[in-house]
Amino acid sequence: YWPVRVVWETSLTTFLLSLALLLTLRMADQPPRLRMWILFGLLWGVIALTNTAIVSMFPFCLFWLLYRLPRREQLVGAALCVLTAALVVSPWLVRNYEVFGKFIFVRDNLPLEMYEANNDQSSGLWTRNEHPGNNPEAMQRFQELGELGFMAEKKQEVRQFIREHPARFLRFTAERAAYFWIAPPQATIVAGYDLMISRHTNFLLGAVLAFAGLWLTIRNRKRGAFLLACFLLIYPLPYYLVMPFVRYKHPIEPEMIMLIVYLFWESRKIQIQWPNRKIA
Questions:
Q1: Least confident among 48-52, 71-75, 182-186
Q2: Which of left, alpha, beta for 103 (phi over 0: left; psi -120 to 50: alpha)?
Q3: Cα(262)–Cα(9) distance, rounded to whole angstroms?
Q4: pLDDT tens track for 110-159
Q5: Which residues contact 90 (CB under 8 A, 6 or more apart)?
Q6: Which segments within 132-252 are labelled E, that is strand?
Q7: Distance CA 174, CA 125 (A)
Q8: Confidence of residue 32 (pLDDT cuts 50, 70, 90)
Q9: How far is CA 85 from the centre of its chain?
Q10: For the chain, give me the number of helices (H) and strands (E)?
């Protein structure tokens, strides 16, 4: 759906994050060689250039590996991994410094994204009509201030909104956290029928089953349970502050499917004894 519906990095990000999880689990099976650490760092460097939002998973994967591989020589490998990732990203960081005159880690649009979802006219969700790509006045302001000046202005406006309306911001954040898992409101018209409630229900069932599978994974102390918990609990946090588009959840859906399958696999052990009925 995503490669043909939205021309973005969604499918590539999903593949790279799944590959990162797979390499993390395999590296934990036996002490990895230095070249494997370099490969791991190369992968995370590519991930950072593709989608900076999922870099939050990098330290958790790294620390989990160091916990599973407590030998001192693994510290050298971990340091080499971080250095490799930094080298992969460095050309773009140098480019940003030459263009903008200051350090910017890959992208600088977070203030704009937060402002779009947190302002006096917002209901807590992203408003397209205030984005420079859709609003001529906003684009003119963008051109007058320049990219950094425009982002600095939005950052100040977001801070002011949060400072003046803390309760409203918390309510917006809680609603976005819910919409991340059940999908934002959207009319779903099929053959003249609005199936929006069905749409929310389908997404909700997937989330409930995935968290149930995670709980079972943690209870049974399965290897990798900590990593899967980070995927479901840590990864979504940035999106609770902005618009929780459905495609933002897609990168962790392979892990959600694994947890759901594990839940069903374990449920086969449950036997339901129906009471015998006496037939006259």
A1: 71-75
A2: beta
A3: 28
A4: 898 888 888 888 887 877 677 888 888 889 998 999 989 999 999 999 99
A5: none
A6: 189-190, 193-194
A7: 11
A8: confident
A9: 19
A10: 12, 2
